[in-house]
Design a protein that fits this description.
alpha+beta; 2 helices; Alpha-Beta Plaits
Length: about 120
């Protein structure tokens, strides 16, 4: 039988991590499609009890080296807080999206505790 929360039982704490995702999208992708991909990332983060705090669009830039016969890409830097499971779901979605050339999530090493 589960015990009720009370004075002696601590609240459940869910640790979320801060991440930054560098995202490279195809230079041929339409602006509407790029907006859809960013929106899908935001929805996945919110569904997984996280949040996107900033989306920084760097625009179309030349790659350092050719990737899949592509020399240019649209760069995005997305800052978010989410549990590790949510980041795994976002990575899964990005892996199966055709317009994504490369992406790299990086932990910002800040732990944020939220009460549920």
């Amino acid at each position: 039988m589960p015990r009720a929360r009370g004075r002696l039982r601590p609240k459940e704490v869910i640790a979320t991590n801060s991440y930054e995702i560098m995202l490279l999208l195809s230079p041929d992708s339409e602006p509407e499609r790029r907006a859809e991909i960013i929106e899908r990332i935001k929805q996945a983060a919110e569904t997984g009890k996280g949040s996107v705090s900033n989306v920084d669009e760097w625009g179309k830039k030349r790659l350092s080296y050719e990737i899949n016969h592509t020399r240019d890409a649209h760069y995005f830097v997305i800052t978010l807080t989410a549990p590790p499971e949510t980041l795994d779901e976002i990575a899964r979605v990005l892996k199966i999206t055709d317009e994504v050339i490369r992406f790299m999530p990086v932990s910002l090493n800040e732990k944020v505790a939220s009460e549920s």
